[in-house]
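Course exercise 7: structure representation. Students receive a sequence record and must write out the corresponding structure in token form. The form below is the worked example handed out in class, using Conjugal transfer protein TraB (250 residues). Read each field label carefully; the graders check that inputs and outputs are placed in the correct fields and that the protein name is recorded exactly as given.

STUDENT ID: A-19
EXERCISE PROTEIN: Conjugal transfer protein TraB
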Amino acid sequence: MSANGSITLVPSVHYSASHCRRVRRAIREADPDLVAVELDVRRFEYFDRDVDPSFADLARAVTPIPAAIYTAVRAIQRTIGRLYGLDLETTDMAVAIDTAAELDTDVALVDDPIEKTISGIASRVGPATIPRVLIRAARPDPGRRADSVAPLSPPLAEIEHGDDVQPAIDLLRRVVPELAEVVIDRRDRAMAERLHALRLEGYDVVAVLGVGHHNGVRRTLASLEGNEGLRRVTVPIRSPTGSSRRIPID
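STUDENT ANSWER:
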């Protein structure tokens, strides 16, 4: 390894087949020291074993109420995915893990533990939040005419950068800032810090992350450049078994 490593960010729409192809191509072409994914240890084990966690699994990790809230959020995400015509059996994280196994490359797990995210959601999103969300959603956006609102993003296959989905992220911040702080801002910082720690160790890394995290992680990585204080940050690294679901995307 060189004294200073490098981080190549591959922003992706999680369930898009075209983005899965992009992920596989980027990893194969770079042949990095590590493939970093937007997963923690628990979720990596689910992906690597091709197991979808049940409510009971989540309830064992955290208390039942946070598990129920997280299950509801996941159900909403999957419903939105179906509305956009996405194949929910195709996931960029599984493809990244499989490609790493193909290249005999280890996987770095740079996301926060799922328990921390679930607890954060539960502490900020509850019954009292719903009326506030409805009011915010109905409130006109100052300075913007309703008939001049541009689409939130280009077609999914054309999304390549965090800027392409920034309007949607901004909308989420306006309507549900409590959720945005937990599922976006906090995790952006945590993932960037772990990637920077790998960079300090001299690893050349291809990092696959949701496109909604691209801008935040990229900005934080830039701000951490030259900061030696994160050298002690622990990043879980695993050797994939190659047993996760193979996606026919080639």
